[in-house]
From TrEMBL:
Family classification: Belongs to the metallo-dependent hydrolases superfamily. Peptidase M19 family.
One GO BP annotation of this record: proteolysis
Organism the protein comes from: Zootermopsis nevadensis
Catalyzed reactions: an L-aminoacyl-L-amino acid + H2O = 2 an L-alpha-amino acid
Cofactor(s) demanded: Zn(2+)
Transmembrane segments annotated in the record for this chain: 127-150
One GO MF term attached to the UniProt entry: metal ion binding
Subunit structure: Homodimer; disulfide-linked.
Protein name: Dipeptidase
Subcellular location: Membrane
Length: 483
């Protein structure tokens, strides 16, 4: 018997096409032929959105695949030459001399020419089963809003889940709310950028390669499909009441100079629109965040100047109280943090004037599991907890890379974000649109809402309140007297 190879090129990369093409490619590579009608049907599944059939296909897939080809095996035909790995059966006609009738299964007894191409025979039920599996992926490929877990919850389809994530991150930017690289630049290089080669793999360069605090470079940001990054202008709590304002200004300066050094890969942005423009241009939208209210020196005038220099968020506290807000450590008084550490019961009146934000999940092991070890699944548990409490519209990602020395297994550096989203895609409650919100849409939405408030209040003028001397509690030793 002679069979004809039917080569195929597969260029699409959606989850649907992966499965469809694997099906066709297998038979082409093994010199089986799929007729034009069935090939066309396979391709057309990319446009299918029959949700009811998806549900039935998922619930019955395993049993149905096992049953494919059973009628052929039971028939015991002498022409059954091979059973395919997916359970289907290929029927071959025995070669016959020229001019003789074939000895196959044709009822009309017509002649078969030597070299006739073998045809893959699948009856209606068998083909419907294959179609059902493909429709699952088709629904994901066109984003019909079915929970991704319907087809992607199996680890065997990791490649397909990653393709779905890739498609999502081609539609919305992945925004990470916190990266402490600027402080590492200060520690290792004293903010001198001429010896900092951010476009190279820092895992191969000292001192970065020797540090457990280093997780970021431009190469890995690209691998992680990071579309926007808030760079943290962090300074230690010990600088409060001393030179915290000066140090913060120096960190804002190094962030701006870093972005300027790599104009083809990074773009400084200060608006929601700027995030989207940088993202669509293929550059990492780079924003500035101030970590800890101690950086303000308890002055709203300083806050306004940080804004003018490009800072677009400020966390209320770090690991220390400020004169107007308590650190979260005050929630758990202990021998090292006595009850009198709780000063304001949360926020003072001044603190309420500067509050607002979105919950962005940290990846620090001690925060995730209260131990030195954690995994990607601990991060997902925290994400789901915040979703359950605040809703899917109020959760985001703020890993804290380069500011943490213990990272979860599976999320070792900034290149691993797609794996997090792909694993999350196995959860039934996370649809494609939900993952978009988590990845970056929530942050961009909140950013726009803040901008609207800014515009609405533009005619009112800034708040001119001063923090009370009572809140300062005598901590004025670094202030000019009488001011």
């Amino acid at each position: 018997m002679e069979v004809v190879r039917e080569p195929e090129k597969f260029e699409n990369t959606t989850a649907t096409t992966i499965i469809c093409n694997n099906y066709l490619h297998y038979h082409a590579a093994n010199q089986y032929t799929v007729n034009a009608d069935r090939k066309s049907a396979c391709r057309s599944l990319q446009k299918t959105d029959d949700l009811d059939l998806i549900e039935r296909a998922v619930s019955t897939a395993d049993d149905t695949i096992t049953a494919i080809g059973e009628p052929y095996r039971q028939a015991g035909s002498p022409d059954l030459a091979q059973k395919l790995p997916n359970g289907a059966a290929a029927i071959f006609q025995s070669p016959s001399p020229s001019g003789e009738k074939g000895t196959g299964t044709d009822s009309d007894g017509s002649d078969r020419r030597r070299g006739e191409r073998a045809v893959l025979e699948l009856d209606c039920k068998q083909w419907l089963a294959v179609c059902g599996l493909l429709i699952v992926a088709a629904a994901l490929g066109v984003g019909v809003g079915v929970p991704l877990a319907l087809e992607l919850r199996s680890s065997r389809l990791l490649e397909a889940r990653l393709q779905v994530v890739k498609r999502i991150l081609q539609e919305v930017p992945l925004v990470d709310g916190h990266n402490d690289l600027p402080w590492n630049i200060r520690k290792f290089l004293h903010n001198q950028l001429h010896d900092f080669h951010f476009s190279e793999d820092l895992r191969q360069q000292e001192p970065w390669s020797q540090s457990v605090w280093s997780h970021t470079d431009l190469h890995r940001l690209k691998q992680g499909m990071v579309g926007a990054q808030f760079w943290s202008a962090y300074v230690p709590c010990g600088s409060q009441y001393l030179d915290s304002v000066q140090l913060t200004l120096e960190q804002i300066d190094v962030i701006r100079r870093l972005v300027d050094k790599y104009p083809n890969q990074m773009q400084l942005v200060t608006t929601a629109k700027g995030i989207e423009e940088a993202y669509h241009s293929g550059r990492v939208a780079s924003l500035i965040g101030v970590e800890g209210g101690h950086s303000l020196g308890s002055s709203l005038a300083v806050l306004r100047m940080f804004y003018q220099l490009g800072a677009r968020y400020m966390t209320l506290t770090h690991t220390c109280n400020t004169p107007w807000a308590d650190s979260s450590l005050a929630d758990d008084p202990s021998d090292t943090l006595p009850m009198d550490f709780i000063e304001h019961g949360g926020l003072s009146g001044f603190g309420n004037a500067v509050n607002g934000g979105i919950v962005m999940v940290s990846f620090f092991n001690n925060f995730l599991s209260c131990t030195d070890t954690a995994t990607l699944h601990d991060v997902i548990a925290h994400i789901n907890h915040i979703r359950a409490i605040a809703g899917v519209n109020h959760v985001g990602l703020g890993a804290g890379y380069d500011g943490i020395n213990l990272t979860p297994t599976g999320l070792e550096d900034v290149s691993r974000y797609p794996m997090l989203l792909a694993e999350l895609a196995r959860d039934r409650q996370w649809s494609s649109s939900d993952i978009k919100k988590l990845a970056g849409s929530n942050l961009v939405r909140v950013f726009r809402e803040v901008e609207k408030v800014r515009d609405d209040w533009s005619q009112v003028g800034p708040t001119e309140d001063w923090i009370s001397m009572e809140d300062l509690d005598g901590k004025t030793y670094c202030r000019y007297p009488g001011t």
